[in-house]
Structures are given as structure tokens and as C-alpha cells.
């Protein structure tokens, strides 16, 4: 697998990454209410296209299998194709974000225990919590920061 920073965000790539997003969310965000994935998905292409820094992981066939987006120090998005989860790609992408983009913060849905555990394993700790997400939906958010040595 290779990870690279993407400057030119062509519609075809954004479409593939949106599908990666949907597959990832359906595999990990079981707490979402029916219809939430479809409603949120409407905004994903714009979010991918507008994020400050975008890195994409490509498999051996040069197919995108994961991506992350960073704005300032904040990792705004990290999504992996479910078929490649558990093989170290998430760790590699986080390392890439920290080293290349200066990322040191991330927000995670409290109900997404797997993601919370992953970020804790990567050295992040919870510094605050809200009862709702940014859109006011009843999905508590954990604000996490990278612990500095």
C-alpha cells in the first residue's frame, strides 16, 4: 500500500472516496439511526473536496482503500475500506498525518468504541466531551489530543 497527499481532487476520485466512506461507516457506525448515513453522505463529496489536506491510501492495484483529511491540527476524517481494516493501514495513515500534516487532534463519536480505542492506542487522550455532534444530533463527541512525550 502507498499513501500520498492529493492536491488535485478529481470528481472520479471523490466518488470512489465517498464509497469508501459509506462502506466504512456502515461497518463501524452501528449506532447511527436509519437514514442518517444517506443524509450525511450528501455532504461527504463537498467535505472531501474542501478539506485542507487530503491523503489517500492506494492498494497494489492503485485503487483507493482509505483516506484521511486534516484541517489545521485536526484530523477531520479517517475512513478505511472494511476489507483492509486490521492490517496496520490505520496506524500508517495516522503516522502520515502526524508527520506530514502536523495533526495532533481528533474528534470521535463516543459510541464508536473501536475508533476511540484505536486513537487511544495511537497516543490520543480525551480532553472534553459534548452530548451532541456538530449538527445537534444525539451522538456524543469525544475531543481527543495527542499526548506529547
From TrEMBL:
The record's GO molecular-function terms, alphabetically, read: acyltransferase activity, transferring groups other than amino-acyl groups
What is the protein's name according to its record? Answer: GNAT family N-acetyltransferase
Under Gene3D superfamilies, the record lists: 3.40.630.30
Residue span, N-acetyltransferase domain: 1-149
Q: Which PANTHER family match?
A: PEPTIDYL-LYSINE N-ACETYLTRANSFERASE YJAB
Give the UniProt keywords, A-Z. Acyltransferase, Transferase
Q: Where is the signal peptide?
A: none
> Could you name the domain of life of the organism this protein comes from?
Bacteria
Protein's organism = Flintibacter hominis
Q: Does the keyword Hydrolase apply?
A: no
| One Pfam family recorded for the sequence | Acetyltransf_10
Amino acid at each position: 500500500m502507498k499513501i500520498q497527499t492529493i492536491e488535485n481532487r478529481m470528481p472520479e476520485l471523490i466518488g470512489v472516496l465517498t464509497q469508501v466512506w459509506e462502506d466504512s461507516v456502515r461497518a463501524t457506525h452501528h449506532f447511527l439511526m436509519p437514514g442518517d448515513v444517506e443524509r450525511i453522505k450528501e455532504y461527504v463529496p463537498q467535505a472531501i473536496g474542501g478539506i485542507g489536506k487530503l491523503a489517500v491510501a492506494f492498494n497494489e492495484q492503485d485503487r483507493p482503500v482509505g483516506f484521511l483529511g486534516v484541517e489545521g491540527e485536526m484530523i477531520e476524517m479517517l475512513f478505511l475500506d472494511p476489507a483492509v481494516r486490521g492490517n496496520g493501514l490505520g496506524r500508517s495513515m495516522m503516522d502520515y498525518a502526524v508527520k506530514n500534516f502536523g495533526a495532533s487532534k481528533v474528534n470521535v463519536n463516543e459510541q464508536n468504541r473501536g475508533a476511540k480505542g484505536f486513537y487511544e492506542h495511537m497516543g490520543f487522550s480525551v480532553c472534553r466531551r459534548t452530548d451532541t455532534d456538530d449538527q445537534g444530533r444525539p451522538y456524543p463527541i469525544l475531543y481527543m489530543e495527542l499526548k506529547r512525550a
